[in-house]
Every structure is written in C-alpha cells, then in structure tokens.
Specification:
The protein is α/β, with parallel strands linked by helices and about 280 residues long. Helices cover about 40% and strands about 20% of the residues.
Length: about 280
C-alpha cells in the first residue's frame, strides 16, 4: 500500500516544479514582449501632445528675423522622442527644482535636466523617476589659432562670448576672470568671435569637433584644456512603465549613434547660421 501511495504521489511532486518553471517562462516572455508605445504617457495622448520641460528656451525671434539654432540638443531630443511616441511635442521652460511639482500635476510629461541640478547623489522625490540619457557635455573654447591663449589663466581680462543658455560656460569663463558677453543663440556668439568682437567663444565639447570639421572653421580650431567633468543630462518623469521603456529607448539611441547624428546636425545648422550672417567668409581673414 505504501508503494502504491508513493507511485500515485510521484507525478504530483514532479508536476510542481514543472508548473513553477512554466510560470517563470511565461513571466520572462511577458517581460521580453515589446511595450506598446500607444499605452504609454496616457495624459499626453488624451491631451494630443507631449509636453517636455527643458532648462532654457531662447526668446521668440522678432518678426522677419533669421532662424537661429538654439543652444543644447534639448529640442532635437524632445522631437525625436515625440516622433517615437507618435505625438507632436511642445517645449516648456522648466527649472529642475520645479520639475517634481509640474510632473505630479500633469503640467508636463517629462523634464530634461542636467544631473548636477537634480541632486544625483540623492534619491529622486517620491514618484519621480530619473533616467540617464547617456549624453554629457562640458564647455569647450573656440579660439583663433593665431592668438596667444593656451591656458585658462590666459583668458583673464579677455572677452568670452556664449549664449544665454550656456550656464556652465558662463560660470567657467567668470571663474577665470574673463569678461562674459551673452547672446540669444550660439551662432550669434560665434559670429562675434569671427568678427573680432570676442576673444573666444564657448560651445559644448560634443559639438565642437563636428563644427571644427568645416573648412571655414579651420583657423578657429585652437582651444583650451577641457575643465572639470562632463555634466550628464537626464530625463525626469512619473510612471514605472514609462521609465522602463525610456531607459530601453536611451540604450537604443546610444546603440544606433543618435548622439553623434544629433551633434553633427547641430554643428551643420550653426555653421550655416554663421555663414548666412557674414557677407564674407571671414571678416578678419
């Protein structure tokens, strides 16, 4: 009788681990299943547009003024993400300190911020997710190659030009004693460098290399040593499914070279802005 009971129980004992393995496999398959983007950012879909907060928006250009490329890649990043979600995008200027309240209220769907402004060493506020973009920048100098400036200590008393949005560049130039002159957009600052109104310009290091690749910028390829560490850019948002999907999307961007493409396009646009603004290739050539 004992033998019969053991025989009857054995299939059941074998079935338990098999059922557990089947459940784990099903869970794994569910985790690997691609997320349907149409289920993400429900508030944005109901609204009909994705609202993205960015640290800075250039003031609207005057009627009839030439189109100018803004500082940073924030607009390109927001537009690329919105296209992936199948939504039009609206940009709103948002300070990192405002982000949690605006995200909680639904006034914005995501916020782009510099990690230094979001207390990277502390946990995000409750309900707020921080997703690294994989993109980081620091200021780099644009200088004529026939100047004597080779160290940051050499810029003291000289005029350094940059856009209003280039906060890190402004802080760096002031720390070394330069006279800071601000412009609405980076191309205006670079025109001032080419016309001799500024001794050096400052742009992000990620766009410096593609910009200097253009022949008309060859004589401005002198620079100064990069200072400090690069500032990482992060997304802030609410919702774990959205955060998980966005982290995967950022990995995809890195894998397909999205940052290289966006910085190259930015440099191309700015080089064209400057070209259109100068009646001759180089007023001091």
């Amino acid at each position: 009788m004992r033998v019969i009971s053991w025989i009857r129980l054995r299939p059941l004992r074998l079935a338990v681990p098999l059922i557990a393995l089947a459940l784990l496999a099903a869970a794994g398959a569910q985790a690997l299943r691609p997320v349907d983007v149409k289920t993400l950012f429900s508030a944005a879909r109901q609204r009909g547009q994705l609202i993205v907060g960015v640290p800075y928006l250039a003031p609207p250009q005057a009627a009839g003024a030439k189109v100018r490329t803004p500082e940073r890649l924030d607009p390109q990043m927001a537009q690329r993400l919105a296209r992936r979600l199948g939504l039009p995008v609206v940009l709103r200027q948002v300070d990192a300190a405002q982000a949690p309240a605006l995200l909680a209220s639904g006034a914005v769907d995501l916020v782009l911020a510099d990690e230094a402004d979001t207390a990277a060493d502390a946990a995000p506020p409750s309900g707020i997710e921080r997703v690294p973009t994989g993109y980081a920048t620091r200021p780099q100098a644009v200088i004529r190659d026939d100047t004597a400036m080779r160290r940051w200590s050499d810029v003291a008393g000289h005029t350094a030009c940059m856009s209003d949005a280039a906060a890190a560049a402004q802080a760096l130039a002031r720390r070394w004693g330069a006279k800071v002159r601000l412009y609405r957009v980076p191309s205006d600052a670079l025109v001032a460098v080419r016309e001799g109104q500024c001794d050096l310009g400052l742009v992000d290091d990620t766009v410096w290399t593609p910009l200097m690749g253009y022949p008309e910028w060859k004589k401005y390829a002198a620079t100064l040593p990069l200072e400090e560490s690069a500032a990482a850019h992060v997304w802030l948002l609410r919702g774990q499914p959205e955060a998980g999907w966005l982290a995967g999307e950022m990995r995809h961007w890195r894998g397909e070279g999205a940052w290289r493409k966006m910085t190259a396009q930015w440099a191309r646009n700015v080089a064209f802005d400057v070209y259109l603004d100068q009646s001759v290739p180089d007023c001091h050539g």
